[in-house]
Specification:
Order of helices and strands: EEHHHEHEHEHEH
Shape: elongated
Number of helices: 7
Strand content: 5-15%
Helix content: 25-40%
Length: 211
Amino acid sequence: MSKLDIKNTKGEVTANVTLKKEIFNIEPNDSVLKDAIVLSLASLRQGTHSTKTRSEVSGGGAKPWRQKGTGRARQGSIRATQWRGGGIVFGPQPRSYKKKQNKKERRLALLSALSYKAQNKDITIIDEFDFKESKTKNMISLLQTLNLDNCKVLVVLNNIEENVFLSGRNLPQIKVILVDAINTLDVVTADKLLFTKDALKKIEEVLGNEK
């Protein structure tokens, strides 16, 4: 079982916590983890791409020249696929990229991602954010104090803290979410995870009670 220090905004250790092994120390399932990532990326695709076939482009009603006697190849329409401005063969059409994954697999994928982070010591626990105002410099200062300033960080909160959200929104390497919204893709794409103490407690309660 992994034991982590709980720090305050000054970087001082105030306590420590033992991570639950059934959440942060399982044997990762790479296959299920990959499926979850593919599913998440696929869900971001709109699938609205569309090209026109020869029956959809305008014009081309008349045969461009007679069938025989011109010395040129026979043509039936200037909107055939070989003509400039003609239809597109086998072009992309609107479709859904939706994929399915059952609840147990989604849970296993998230646990696998969290376990990888714990094994690589990429999880930091903070007691609480005490931002009195929404300033980007507050977030930058905190990340520097926690040695998280040169990486992509996923900040996980238990409750909505407006000053924290606003302080991190201008930093491209920072993403602030509520613990209820934690997902496999965000965990995998982040270099480090920064949990509040309460957020960590809640995620252990929720994932620990799921079967």
